[in-house]
Amino acid sequence: MPVIILVADGVRADTLRATLDSGALPAMARLLEDGALHEITSVFPSVTGPAYTPFLLGKHPGSVGMPGLRWYDRSRRDCSGPGHSRSYVGIDMRLVDQDLDPAAKTMFELVPNSLAAMSVVTRGLHPSRFFTRGPVFAARTAWTHFRGDVEGWLDIDRDVARRLAAKMRELRPDFVFAAFTGVDKVSHARRHDSTDVVAALRIVDDAIAEMRRDLEAAGSWEATHMWVVSDHGHTPIEAHEDLAGVLELLGHRPIAHPWILRRDPRTAVMVSGNAMAHLYVDLETRSRRWWPSLAAEWSGLVGSLLARDSTDLVLLPFSESRCEIRSRTAGAAMLEWSGDSYTYRPATGDPLGIGEHVGVSGDESHALTLGGEYPDALVQIARIAAAPRAGDIILSATREWDLRAGFEPIPHISSHGALHRDHMLVPLLASRPLPFPPLRTVDLMPIALDALSIPHPPGLEGRTGAARGP
Ligand SMILES: [Zn+2]
From ligand 1's centre to the CA of 420, what distance in Å? Predict the structure, then answer.
């Protein structure tokens, strides 16, 4: 059964539902007649790029070496250039495939007859089977990006839709992954409740109508799974915290994009989304140190950050199976995990607002956090804290704040990246009922592989009825 995944990048679950209800998306409404609309959780950081790894590698981004849109390489082995860091905004995007864990198989490596558009991950695809990175297309997206041209992004979505439909007629692919970035770009510049978000969704809707017509004409629609999904939500921003500037004022000599070259930096500030950040301290040490060995020197910095309105949660990884969670307003707790067992113990407070839980499974922890401010936080925090390339101090911003003051070509009056529900919950519109309803975007790859009758590679972190990940 062919599987088509269409990412309406940045659309919130409630926004998609309301737009469907308004009648503005007739092709999606037709999908819903025979299918289902789910609300599932994305990944932390809830940001494009990292949040595509669940769809294409069946794993959380930190687990495959992409802990954020920007990260610092302590080892200085993987990022050997000046600054020893990555920012996938811009030219480093070409390095995504090589940064990802080579042991984790991509959908494109597992499904030879695949096709992709605007995918950050392309490993395993023949160049004739994706359009994102050809020199002409890359130059066009770069020009659109640096001009901050929202209308230009919508034109790119229309172009993607047209080329995608033509390629699908030509190749009859078994697996398609296509991202439409219009909703995200419009939301950043004009807010997520802008009517232009509906215009961006209508481009996706028109693309669905055309693909469906073609597949019906070819007699293959009945066998096709088509999923419309997102990778993160959006919330309005009232204030920007210049996090790198804060560290500078505190005397910690940070590097942060775009200024990653300086003599004797002491810290690295790597923001994603822009509502989360990895902070790296003690940059001379090439291997990862855990918080207990850093606390003596860096507790003051954490205290200073927790005194700022922009900080919601601070995550302090203690080991590969333990992480302290501190909140600006609700005290601290400890999270421990082992396999599929999670234990959350409030200490000086209850930052996640869920009370004590001992030895709950990933599924149980999803259920008990879903209605609160931090859906799926136990699993999400465990995965990012254990990620080898994660920061020593991980920040999730307060609602209405983000963590970067400038340098964005498109104005950022709306943001994402954080652990809170309006960034983490995403819609999944499926054209037919799924045999095992997913909880998370990371569950979609095993479900796709089942539909394609392809065995699961080892190490998937998603789960289906047939096989459960950790
Ligand atoms: Zn965005």
Answer: 15
Cα of 233 from ligand 1 centre, angstroms: 9
Q: Is the pLDDT of residue 279 over 60?
A: yes
Residue 441 in domain: yes
Relative to beta strand 322-327, strand 239-240 is unpaired
Banded pLDDT at 406 (limits 50, 70, 90): low
With CA atoms as reference, report the closest residue to 230 among 29, 31, 424, 3.
424
Peptide bond into 113 cis (omega under 30): no
Domain membership of residue 355 as a residue range: 239-409
Query: What is the pLDDT, as a whole number, of residue 419?
Result: 98
Q: What is the pLDDT at residue 73?
A: 95
**Residue 241 CA to ligand 1 centre (angstroms):** 17
Q: Identify the pLDDT of residue 468.
A: 46
- Dihedral of CA atoms 162, 2, 363, 44 in degrees, nearest 10, equals -30
Query: Are 92 and 228 found together in one domain?
Result: yes
CB atoms within 10 A of CB 341: 15
β-strand 276-281 against 311-319: which pairing, if any? unpaired
Cβ-proximal residues to 350 (8 Å cutoff; 6+ apart), any chain: 330, 331, 333
Q: What is the structure's pLDDT at 467?
A: 47
Q: Is 348 exposed, middle or buried (0-12, 13-18, 19+ CB in 10 A)?
A: exposed
Looking at residue 444, its amino acid is L
Give mean pLDDT, residues 21-34: 98
> What would the two tokens of residue 205 be?
């809707």
pLDDT tens sequence across 64-73: 999 999 999 9
36-50, 57-71, 246-260, 397-411: segment of lowest average pLDDT: 397-411
Given a cut of 50, whether residue 44 has pLDDT beyond it is: yes
Q: Tell me, what's the pLDDT at 469?
A: 44
pLDDT at 326: 98
CA distance 255 to 370: 36
Dist. CA 393 → ligand 1 center (Å): 23
Q: Are residues 227 and 269 in the same domain?
A: no
How far does residue 338's CA lie from ligand 1's centre (Å)?
Answer: 33
Whether residue 13 lies inside any domain: the answer is: yes
**Ligand 1 center to residue 14 CA distance, Å?**
17
414 in any annotated domain: no
Do the domain assignments include residue 156?
A: yes
Burial class (CB in 10 A: 0-12, 13-18, 19+), 29: middle
User: For residue 17, how far is its CA from the centre of ligand 1 (angstroms)?
Assistant: 20
Total of domains in the chain: 2
- Ligand 1 centroid vs 169 CA: distance in angstroms? 31
pTM score of the predicted model: 0.96
